[in-house]
């Protein structure tokens, strides 16, 4: 009972606010969590992505506040709600026996700056939720040129040059936090396939091309 009371009143005592609606809560309130959890996964289609791809939620409005806070601002308490949504997207894919989740890696400089490899954290937790494995098969060269400053052609050219892949004999599902143009998923899939790994699907938490309703 004491633990429950402390959990309920801690946001009020600490002045913490829900990052989505601003109500007293530790990062994300119950109402917003329930609204996020109430969304059904949907298919994602982008030029260049050649495997079935699923997203758990629209990126906006809720995830546009939660995902940057998790990976850039140290709101690591959000790992639970975000990884559960990733697990929902993965579950919508065609899971084969022995499937592994493989995260699209962040740039090494971003991992150093954040102090966390956020896609690996989310992939590992989602895999645990589903009772399957997770593996770091991809890594990026750190060329210091952020993808978001490039157009689609530039993003694909830069990404293709810097993704390095290891081989896995088991089927894999690529996972990421958000899909925008789809370039990262496309070139990650190509890098793995080139090395003989079978990529059966991709899954993301948020679809940046779809806007949800409050």
Explain the overall architecture.
The protein is an alpha/beta fold. The chain has a single domain (40-142, 161-207), classed as Rossmann fold (3-Layer(aba) Sandwich), CATH 3.40.50. It contains eight helices and eight strands, in the order ααββααβααββαββαβ. The chain has helices spanning 2-14, 30-37, 63-72, 79-91, 108-114, 118-130, 152-162, 183-194, and strands spanning 42-44, 53-60, 100-103, 133-134, 138-140, 163-165, 172-179, 199-211. The strands form two sheets. A six-stranded mixed beta sheet has the order 1-2-8-7-3-4, with helices on both faces. Strands 5-6 form a two-stranded antiparallel sheet. α7 (152-162) runs parallel beside α8 (183-194). The two termini are 33 Å apart. The relative contact order is 0.19.
Question: Can you give me a brief rundown of this structure?
Answer:
The chain has 214 residues and is of the alpha/beta class.
Question: What descriptive keywords fit this protein?
Answer:
214 residues; alpha/beta; Rossmann fold; 6-stranded mixed β-sheet; two-stranded antiparallel sheet; 41% helix; globular; PRTase-like; PRTase_dom; DNA utilization protein GntX; ComF/GntX_DNA_util-trans; signal
């Amino acid at each position: 009972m004491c633990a429950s009371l402390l959990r309920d009143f801690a946001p009020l005592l600490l002045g913490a606010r829900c990052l989505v609606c601003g109500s007293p809560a530790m990062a994300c309130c119950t109402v917003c969590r329930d609204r996020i959890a109430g969304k059904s996964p949907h298919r994602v289609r982008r030029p260049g992505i050649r495997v079935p791809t699923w997203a758990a939620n629209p990126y906006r409005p809720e995830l546009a506040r939660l995902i940057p806070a998790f990976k850039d601002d140290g709101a690591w308490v959000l790992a639970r709600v975000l990884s559960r949504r990733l697990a929902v997207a993965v579950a919508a894919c065609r899971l084969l026996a022995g499937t592994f989740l493989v995260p699209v890696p962040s740039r090494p400089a971003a991992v150093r700056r954040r102090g966390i490899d956020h896609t690996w954290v989310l992939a590992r937790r989602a895999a645990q939720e589903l009772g399957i494995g997770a593996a770091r098969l991809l890594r990026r060269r750190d060329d210091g040129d952020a993808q978001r400053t490039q157009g689609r052609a530039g993003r694909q050219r830069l990404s293709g040059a810097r993704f390095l892949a290891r081989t896995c004999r088991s089927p894999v599902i690529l996972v990421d936090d958000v899909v925008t143009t789809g370039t990262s998923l496309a070139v990650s899939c190509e890098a793995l396939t080139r090395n003989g790994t079978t990529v059966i699907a991709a899954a993301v938490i948020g679809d940046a091309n779809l806007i949800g309703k409050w």
